[in-house]
Fold this sequence. Notes:
- Helix content is about 90%, strand content about 0%.
- It is mostly helical.
- The termini are far apart.
Amino acid sequence: xxxxxxxxxxxxxxxxxxxxQRLMGHANIETTINxxxxxxxxYKQKKKLKKNYRLxxxxxxxxxxxxxxxxxxxxxLRWLF
Length: 81
């Protein structure tokens, strides 16, 4: 149980499978992939979704900024003309 917890925490921290293989003492990478591959893919996907969310959030903030600038621009045009 402790080995699996350690391996999971390593994967959460971003340790790659070849490094994990050596840490766990597996002779073949297949053993590591068969044992921890699902966990590795889960955290890799989670990290990717987190990154996409941050990009989406920045894009959303940028669109809001553009809308505000457009409104300000229209107000200036009204004031000038």
